[in-house]
Amino acid sequence: MKIAAVTRDGKIAHTIAESTEILIVTEENGLPTAKELVQIGDDEITSVLFKLAMQNIDVLLAGEIGTALQSTLRMLGVEMLPGCEGDAVENIAAYMTHEEIGDPSKIIVPEEDEDDPLGCLHDCAKCMAGCHDRPVQRTEA
Question: Who contacts 90 (Cβ-Cβ below 8 Å, separation ≥6)?
Answer without folding.
Answer: none
